[in-house]
Amino acid sequence: MGLVLGLLLLTGLTASAEGVRVRDLATIAGARDNQLVGFGLVVGLAGDGDKDPVYTKQTVANLLQRYGVNVQSQVSTVSSKNVAVVMVTADIEAFAKPGARIDVQVSSMGDAKSLQGGVLLQTPLMGADNKVYAVAQGAISVGGFTAGGGGGGGATVTKNHPTVAQIIGGALVEREIQTSIIRDGTIELLLRDPDFTSAALTAEAINEVFTNAAHALDSSSVQVHLPAGAESELVDFIARLETIEVTLSSPARIILNERTGTIVATASIHIDSCAVSQGSITISVASSQKASQPNPFSNGGQTAVTQSTSTEVTESKSSLITLPEMPTVEKVAAALNALGVTPRDMMAIFLAMKQAGALQAEIIIR
Predict the structure, then answer these.
(1) Are both 44 and 25 inside the same structural domain?
(2) pLDDT at residue 156 greater than cutoff 80
């Protein structure tokens, strides 16, 4: 299988790079999203709904009973061809107030063919504490479709996932989740990518603006003490804090993905002086059939089919190439590209350099 050529050079996070805002590096402890989930019905599916499973019929019967139609004793007569039972999920942000709208995802739970054209009926969304925090309802939007299935051939075409949909702003927040971000006069920043160096540099950058206000607790958290009077103007303080820029130094890292042929290397990788030889062996096996005919006028001769196989081994020529010390990814890429190697061969070279101790970088294989 051919590999897609890909050597992506990430040169943005070097020691001389432009600063990255605190808001892009970290989140504030306590100001987190919460997950909500609900069980509901999508109606109006024009025959593409569930094929009458028991739980769908029971859910429809329970819904009808809420409106005074008692069919509990005749659940087996209820049809669900235009109805699908679904799970509704959503993330509610911190500080979301009652009346605010959030997006929801709707996923078929049964054997419905498609949710296209359906409408979600009022569905309570509960948190992990089994309390209702939002209510979802409305016409759903499906990013796919299923067509065909009829006629003599029975061909069917499906694009994306027609049994998964979403409703933008489809849920109304009914209850606010109490959130506290101040603890003992401090707030805590949680780094999205834990790293001791990043935590120390973040604390240093904050202290340049707010003197002696921050210190790194560990590789993933930085504690910031609120200056005098900041607690009464917390929003303004956090807004100033998030705009502080931090100059980071990215780790030396190479990501190898053999399935896609992608190589991603940061700008800080370093290669010591070494020599590289790249060659490959190609084995070609060809199989063919030939017909063996009897001699003319022979008695008892029969035509026979014979199998013929030929094998050819080709080894490409290569030479030992000396590579000088290369402190930047640009020079490494230029040197390896000069060898004319494929992405798969380049991965093997990186691994061999690492084993030889010439490559000063972390290698991650996906």
Answers:
(1) no
(2) no
User: Are 63 and 115 in the same domain?
Assistant: yes
Q: Which residue segment(s) compose the domain that 142 sits in?
A: 34-173
In a domain, 278, yes or no: yes
Does residue 103 have a pLDDT over 80? yes
* 335 φ/ψ angles, rounded to the nearest 5 degrees: -70, -45
Q: Which of 182-186, 246-250, 316-320 has the lowest mean pLDDT?
A: 316-320
341 domain-assigned: yes
Looking at the fold, whether 268 and 361 belong to one and the same domain comes out as: yes
Q: What is the CA radius of gyration of the chain?
A: 32
Distance CA(80)–CA(59), nearest Å, equals 10
* Strand-strand pairing, 253-257 and 362-365: parallel
- Residue 320 in any domain: the answer is yes
Asked if 261 and 140 sit in the same domain, the reply is no
pLDDT tier, 285 (very low <50, low <70, confident <90, very high otherwise) = low
Q: Is the pLDDT of residue 317 over 80?
A: no
Structure confidence at residue 12 as a pLDDT band (50, 70, 90) = very low
Residues 117 and 201 in one domain: no
- 122 inside domain: yes
Say if residue 23 is in the same domain as residue 92. no
What per-residue string of b and e applies to 231-265 under the rule 16 or more CB within 10 Å gives b?
A: eeeeeebbeebeebebebbbebebbbbeeebbbbb
What is the rounded distance in angstroms from the CA atom of residue 111 to the CA atom of residue 121?
A: 19
**What are residue 154's phi and psi, to 5 degrees?**
70, 25
More confident residue, 315 or 309: 309
Cβ atoms within 10 A of the Cβ of 291, count? 8
Out of 30-39, 77-86, 299-308, pick the least confident: 299-308
Residue 137 in contact with residue 170, Cβ under 8 Å? yes
One domain, residues 158 and 54? yes
